[in-house]
Amino acid sequence: MVIVVIGISQLDRVFYKDGLFRDTLNNFEASSKDYDLVFIGNSHSHSSFDPRVFELELGAKTINLAAPAQSLVTTRAVASMLLKETKPDLVVLNIFSTSLNETNNEAYKAFQLATLDFLPHSVAKSRTIFEMFPFEEWPAAFSETIRYHHNWDTISSFNKPYNYNLRYDVYKGFATYKTTYDSVMLKKFQHRFEKRDAVIKSLSAKQKKRIDAIIALFEKHQVPVLFINAPSRAYQLSTKFRTYAERIQEYLEENDQTMLDLNRITDTLGLVKKHYRDPNHLNTRGALVVSEYLANYLKSNYEIGKSISKEELGKNRYYLMDQGFPNSIHSKNHTKDSVLFNLGFRNTHLYYTDRNRFELAIEVDKDAFNSTRMVLQYGFRDNKLDEKKFKTWITLDPEDVLTYSNRHFAIVTLFPAEKKLYDLELRVLGTSNQVVLTHDSLKL
Amino acid sequence: MLFNSFDFAVFFPIFFVLYWVVHKKLTLRNVFLLVSSYVFYAWWDWRFLFLIIFSSIVDFVVGARIAKAEKRSTKRTLLMVSLATNLGLLAYFKYANFFIDSFVNSFNFLGGSLDSFALNIILPVGISFYTFQTLSYTIDIYRGRLQPVKEWLPFFTFVVFFPQLVAGPIERASHLLPQFYKKYEFDYERVKSGLLLALFGLFKKMVIADRLAVLVNQVYNNPTDYSGYELIVATVFFAFQIYCDFSGYSDIAIGISRTLGFDLMKNFKSPYFSRSITEFWRRWHISLSTWFRDYVYIPLGGSRKGSYRTYANLFIVFLVSGLWHGAAITFIIWGAVHGVFIVVEKLLKEQAWTTEGTLTKINRSYLGQAFWMLFTFAVVTFAWIFFRANSFSDALTVISGSFEIKAFTYEDLFGLGLAASEFKVAIVAIVLLLLFEAFHNTFGALRVFNKQFILIRWVFYLIAVFVIIIFGVYGNDAPKEFIYFQF
């Protein structure tokens, strides 16, 4: 029996499915775990708190360990893992109605497993699975082999190649979303909220128990926790969302906890439609605004360490913007007589951020883009065996411009599997058909 | 509780350890077995436990009374009580809707006008099996072949003994009941061979039967969408599906009983190696076919009342066997097809030209035997069409569609529900199974296996476990129940 269990746990490494949270944990484990500030929670935390801003503003070594649709029970397992490994000066835990979800449908369970799968086996993880999954689903919840065994014919290697074509652009657990929503999406959200809307008068005993458990966990480890509710347009659209937040805040305050509901100050923050990816989540622009506000709030209210190293800061987009991109691998200024300058392009910088992730920062005039079509292509060697060519078409609109310190940037992210690129080219399409940046071979 | 469920994977080890803790005290052991068996059954639906308890009480009391009764007529009346109770319950739960439907259809056919209606009856799992098992007890006492037991505990445990409760083998009281009076000592070799057999059963169920079920279900649930070789492949796959499903259950039942010290009768002996339908029924669902032989065929007169009566008796037995499997015309036709072939075989065997001369020599040659094996398999597989089809008209669709010529393409073949890789696993697994059975029938696989070095044996056990874990079909979308649970 023991041999079978060991065998299954080894096979789990073969059968697992790649996921966002794996990347986040890889980030977490990539350096020494002496984090000063950690964000946990679900998608609101994941898309609202950009570690780069906190690194820069507070000097704090920061990571965002949030994952989409995470329930408070799963967040507790993450917190438990975190507190076992390190003792940050502050943990910011995003909490709202979805965190206390009491439904148990397949999609919900899949989201929880998308986090739990990558947590090391522990009592906390087991307890979470026992609490969330019915008895007959425990084996599948614990083991990817049992859950995904039917994918046996797709298994070819114990060492899966790095997933270079990630759907999400994630930096230290923070999800970068550049776009904003349209009226169709807004209508969908409104319809969804209308269908499920209700006034929440009180939290259930089970929900209170879950909040109690997470408070107790932080008290046990003597790590301060700040509960937060990141901005969502649902706050205006849904009575249920709003009243849930009120009840959560009341309960937390009854238990001597601090909750910062950023939804109450969205006007002060100046959050408008362009700051949201969808009516429920912020995009990068919104995250920048919120993160800057929160960094100032934390500076005034908490003692947070300043462990970020210069080397780490050197990978930080905002630091590089402030410093004029000192670590660029490749830089190009577009002179006044060039076609690109007339198109609004000022300069282009390619720099390495972390773990095979590059960014191209194109500084532009504010109004440079209007459905500007570009193509980005590059080659690299995947797993040192196969040559891969990557080509992507990009359409840039005014809303894709990220404004930082009154300068405007379009950021393009590259995820090659290797730190070596060749035949890199970024070209503006259309009548101008200008090469913005080109390089035969880049090696770090 | 299903043998291939996580519930059982947790239940059995706990049960097993506790069983061997209490095994020295017979009464305590039987109480533990009885309670565990009730828990096992109640896991599905506790309400139907009362039905089993009721059936147990009736047969325990009737059995004792039959033995005590001096008059033949009293004995017969008491037997009728047992028959009426058991078959009455079976008729109500299993056949009520079928009879109502048949009555309404016949009435309307004759010019009447009745609206069809159905009673909302849930079929208690295993009712056909435990009913026949308890009937064997009262009938054998009536015949004077068995003495009634004085203690209720062994009898109640015999009725509800969980390894074979829901899908057999249908044990005779004379074979299984005395085993509840015996004490067993923990025997490592028995436990090991029992677990190995159970593992083999799980392999047949989870790797073969449930994989084939994916294709079979897709085709048989939409038979008009398929033709030619597609229908033939689905039917052949069903032949192996039902074999692996049912014999897999029997292997698990026999295997886990063996780990507890009990012996259950063998239910299958490589039936697809049969060279005649008669031989097939000596190898397929042996516990049921011998039950029908002893309690239906022989009371009907067996072969003692001349050829024509023998043919009629055989045919009746197979019709009843069809009806036992399910309340539908398709099962009756399935039984009838077997009945017809059995009668034809018997008729031919009685002709001198089939048993003498050149034909016999040809029949006995390897080629001849291979031919009859394939022929028997073809007949059995043809009959399975009626067994599996959702309705009589579906069965006719499958039969007529099978004769249509359809150009073979891999795209069509792998579009029947099993992707290419899954299809290949199914074929490899079937071939391995048949090779294993041929090897086992010739050399005795277990004997050869046990002679191997311990490391080789343990590597084999582990490989078998991981083959089931990786290649087994389980999870949310997989078929879970054993086919014979519905009977």
Topology:
The complex is a heterodimer of chains A (444) and B (487).
Chain A (H helix, E strand, L loop, with lengths): L1 H14 L4 H11 L6 E4 L2 H6 L2 H8 L3 E3 L7 H14 L4 E5 L11 H11 L6 H10 L5 H5 L1 H5 L20 E3 L2 E3 L6 H14 L8 H17 L3 E5 L4 H4 L1 H16 L4 E3 L4 H4 L6 E3 L2 E2 L1 H18 L8 H4 L3 H7 L6 E4 L5 H4 L2 E10 L2 E8 L7 E11 L3 E11 L5 E3 L2 E8 L5 E9 L6 E9 L1
Helix pairs in contact in A: 4-15, 5-7, 5-11
Chain B lengths: L5 H17 L3 H20 L3 H20 L3 H38 L17 H16 L9 H9 L12 H4 L11 H34 L7 H31 L17 H7 L2 H12 L9 H19 L3 H21 L2 H4 L1 H8 L1 H23 L3 H11 L7 H4 L6 H24 L1 H6 L3 H18 L16
Brief synopsis:
The complex is a heterodimer of chains A (444) and B (487). Chain A has helices spanning 2-15, 20-30, 43-48, 51-58, 72-85, 106-116, 123-132, 138-142, 144-148, 183-196, 205-221, 234-237, 239-254, 266-269, 284-301, 310-313, 317-323, 339-342, and strands spanning 37-40, 62-64, 90-94, 169-171, 174-176, 225-229, 259-261, 276-278, 281-282, 330-333, 345-354, 357-364, 372-382, 386-396, 402-404, 407-414, 420-428, 435-443.
